[in-house]
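From the pipeline queue, job 12 of 40. The input is one protein chain; the requested action is below.

Action: predict structure.
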Amino acid sequence: MRKSFVVMLFFSLLLLLAACSDSSSDNNNNVSSSNSIQSSNTNQQQEVDQAEEKQQEQVVLPEPEGELTWFGFAGEQHFEDFFAQYLREKFPKLKINYIAQTNEQRIEQVLASGTAVDLYFSSAGELFEDFIPANMAQDLTPYIKQYGINLDTIDDAYLEQVSIDEKLYLLPVSENKFVMYYNKDIFDRFGVDYPRDGMTWGEALELSKKITRNEGGKQYVGLWLSPKHYMRAAQNSATFIDRDTNKATVNNDDWKLIFEKIFSDFTRDPGVQQKARDRWLAHNDFNKDFVVGMYVYTSGWLNTHEESLAMNWDIAAIPQLEEYPGLTAQPNATYVGISANSAKQEIAMQVVSYLLSEEYQIEVSKRGAITPLSTPAVRDAAFADFPFTDKNIPALFYGQLAPGRAITEYDEIVIEEAFAKDIIVEIVRGNMDVNSALRYAEDKANKLIEERLASE
């Protein structure tokens, strides 16, 4: 009897333990299930939040329609070839009326006629000379985030020149790069090695000396350039005017470096100096008379190479200043801006946004428009529609852009009047030393600026 009771008690305890174990297992399963549900809900909420954020970033804008008026320095055919036809395809409901700038039809005349301008082309210099004084400059900063424009694909040098107090007034849509063209036939004639990417100005000078000579009464010049174009984009970012005082600042070491390295050193040969006295050096010496071996100029000649260049030509990167290794010229971009007086800024910004898209930039790069974007896909498309399989197109993107100089509305007084008209000519002809020339240029520029200020 006692033994039977013990056995029954033993089995009862076993059943109780089993029941407790099942209950504990159920509780654990319930907790696990609850945690899984909570985790799933959290993940779903995160996905919803991310989707909403993405939707906010990629706002679906209504297709632009109506009319925009665009003013710019590009000719009508150029505007049609590189802008209008792409915009019509992208925005079929939008009509763009383009007004090409001429000597008789500048922005002052257009505004005075009562024409409302929505978009305009500008260089960095023209922003300060023309569009800020005309009260047309609109800060684009609020629109850039709204329209998802990725400024990381644009070199800071492009943006620095058109920014004031952290406000960005223009965006670059194409670039006119500085390169060094050279005539292979001249190098072959004299048995001289071709120029290469990454040369310094000192190395270019030594190469130039091997070309410079008088042969059969024909004076050959090793290297020349377009002075006004280069000075605006000098590799040491030398400035012309002090923004705070409106005084010329050119009698200094920055400009002495440029004038000695380039305008003086490359023209010490008596034959070159005599040629400059007889007839000033110009484009024709390189691309018509074929007596200049190397010529530093903008990339525009590539688009018209059949008319603008010798039959046997190529390009190399612009030589670097030894004091500024790795730097090419400053930006020389075509920018687009939105008029502060436009009633259609939202529509205009959609156009600007498209012009900075890879879709558009790849297409026009193929046709010879140099992109301001750093995107490899766009750069690789450069001149794809041209028969340039044997040309050094990578030279266009060699090196780092020099920082943009601080620009003022009076810079062109120095460039056109004091530098190009007077002292460069005299230095090249051997009639004036660099130090005297820079003192004279600064004094003349300041007098001209004072006259301008007095008349305003």
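Job complete. The domain at 66-175+332-379 is CATH 3.40.190.10 (D-Maltodextrin-Binding Protein; domain 2).
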